Amino acid sequence: MNRLFICKVSVLPPLASIFVTTIASQFADNLIANGVETTTVRKICQTIAFLSPAVCMILSSLDLGLPPWEIVGILTGGLALSSFALSGLYCTHQDMSPEYASILLGITNTVGAVPGIIGVALTGSVLDSTHSWSLSLFAPSIFFYLTGTIVWLAFASSKPQSFSKID
Known about the structure:
It contains 7 helices and no strands. By secondary structure, the chain is an all-alpha fold. The longest helix has 30 residues. The termini are far apart.
């Protein structure tokens, strides 16, 4: 494959994410302005951010007879829609505690980075043994997107917290 082509294709998800981010922010702001509870808005946006890439990875893993450019489009769309996290998870820290939002973000990003570190080695190991990108990359990613959605919906809250208050 042509390296220039690969470079051009690899920039598509970040470019599409710029577009989706403007939609996600307006969507979230409009819901809040119309009286939807902030936690509900954050849950909706984060669910879109988790389920969209999962669905697109499932579609890409199936043998639907699609040409490569359509698979690239599906994956680009899914990854771009993950930008809804900017109106979901990433706003929740500010909702909870403007004073400690940076610390909360640091903690959640650190915890979120651990699976990424382990995932690289795991993906390589599974790919070496199965020779299947669907099994080595997409299946674990889909699993964690779905698991993340369930955990987020069950436990996420944007309720303001007073971490500096002594009881």
